[in-house]
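To whoever is on call:

I kicked off a structure prediction for a single chain this morning and the downstream step that reads the tokens threw a length-mismatch warning. I double-checked the sequence; it's 71 residues and nothing unusual in it as far as I can see. Pasting both halves so you can look.
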Amino acid sequence: TAKHEKENKAVALSEELRLFLESNGLGDYFVQFVEDGATCKDDLVLFTSDDLLGYGMKKLRARKAMKLFAL
């Protein structure tokens, strides 16, 4: 069904997001990104440094993450 296809696509995008974060040393933050609405890797550019600092990231790590997300 169409609902099933949509759910499968969402799971695949979420898995892509998890793998991207893990491969860049940010896997510990996956749940926080998803809880704040991220559904795919492309959503990461919408987060601010304040968001990342709120996750407990140090300033430099947050800045590096922001640079990575902009690529």
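Update from on-call: the warning came from a stale cache, not from the record. Cleared it. Sanity check on the structure: The two ends are 35 Å apart (CA to CA).
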